[in-house]
């Protein structure tokens, strides 16, 4: 009889580094979540402008990963997979980052280090994670994973991926490019939306969004907007996961959040302080996604998933 295995997944994006530890039972093919953690490290700080990772950002990420490594050791993790996305794909000094990850992760699994995955693989892993708790009858799905530096679109159902693309837009990237005022000025938000519209139109030309019967949004911008729209007193993943939001309600939330100052957003109980300065730009991307979804699918609501690329990574380890 096969014994349960403890598997760990780490996702290091432009804005945050996240950990999922799961016990996988090969006999029943089931996953039991041990912990899910998120630390804002802003690894992608300035990458869009300088082409290099900021040394202070690397150090913030090292400290967070060291904390995660201690947790993995404590839980007896046997395998680990760490993926690094947009920020490291764009960086000229990425070897410093990868050497640091190998030093820490080798404590869990000899030779383990962060991998740079393609946007297409990122999209596939996000799709697997985001749809694992949704009935296949609700498909085909269009999963949209909105990150700090990139946003992935993937259309498919079950094990079949019909189209996927990674676009160069995210909440950090658009904040650094377009938003200077506090709160953001209307012309700044307009410029961010114009850029996002171009990226969404490009995505729609590559993947058949019109085929989707359900649109699924995942990652921090979407989950935070869900908490805000549902007026939760505190961030509650259980109430956010698989929540369905109407486009009308979501647009009202976006208007409210973009009118607040950074400090007002930091003071809000469901907004992580490290996300407070970038969520207006993320919301601008969401606005353009809703517009395209409305036009192409005729839908008037979106499902928000707390599960995402981390769950896809764990599934890849289990297989």
Automatic annotation (TrEMBL):
This is Ppx/GppA family phosphatase. Residues 31-311 form the Ppx/GppA phosphatase N-terminal domain. One of its GO terms (molecular function) is pyrophosphatase activity. The lineage of its organism: Bacteria, Bacillati, Actinomycetota, Actinomycetes, Mycobacteriales. It comes from Corynebacterium lipophilum. SUPFAM superfamilies: Actin-like ATPase domain. Pfam families: Ppx-GppA. CDD domains: ASKHA_NBD_MtPPX2-like (cd24119). InterPro entries: ATPase_NBD (IPR043129), GppA/Ppx_hydrolase (IPR050273), Ppx_GppA_N (IPR003695).
């Amino acid at each position: 009889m096969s014994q349960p295995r403890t598997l760990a997944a780490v996702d290091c994006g432009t804005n945050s580094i996240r950990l999922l530890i799961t016990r996988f039972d090969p006999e029943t093919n089931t996953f039991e979540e041990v912990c899910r953690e998120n630390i804002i490290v802003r690894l992608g700080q300035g990458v869009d402008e300088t082409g290099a990772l900021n040394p202070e950002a690397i150090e913030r990420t090292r400290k967070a990963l060291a904390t995660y490594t201690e947790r993995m050791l404590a839980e007896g993790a046997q395998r680990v997979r760490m993926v690094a996305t947009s920020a490291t794909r764009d960086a000229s000094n990425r070897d410093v980052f990868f050497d640091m990850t190998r030093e820490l992760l080798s404590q869990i699994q000899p030779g383990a280090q962060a991998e740079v995955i393609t946007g297409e693989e990122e999209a596939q892993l996000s799709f697997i994670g985001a749809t694992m708790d949704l009935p296949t009858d609700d498909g085909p799905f269009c999963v949209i994973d909105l990150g700090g530096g990139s946003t992935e679109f993937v259309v498919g159902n079950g094990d079949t991926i019909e189209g996927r693309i990674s676009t160069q837009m995210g909440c950090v990237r658009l904040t650094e490019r377009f938003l200077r005022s506090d709160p953001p000025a209307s012309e700044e938000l307009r410029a961010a939306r114009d850029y996002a519209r171009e990226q969404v139109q490009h995505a729609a030309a590559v993947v058949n969004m019109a085929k989707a019967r359900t649109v699924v949004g995942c990652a921090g911008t979407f989950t935070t907007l869900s908490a805000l729209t549902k007026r939760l007193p505190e961030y509650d993943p259980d109430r956010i996961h698989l929540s369905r939001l109407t486009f009308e309600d979501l647009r009202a939330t976006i208007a409210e959040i973009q009118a607040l100052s950074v400090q007002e957003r930091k003071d809000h109980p469901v907004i992580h302080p490290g996300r407070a300065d970038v969520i207006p730009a993320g919301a601008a991307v969401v606005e353009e996604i809703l517009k395209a979804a409305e036009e192409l699918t005729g839908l008037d609501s979106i499902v928000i998933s707390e599960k995402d690329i981390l769950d896809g990574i764990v599934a890849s380890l289990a297989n």
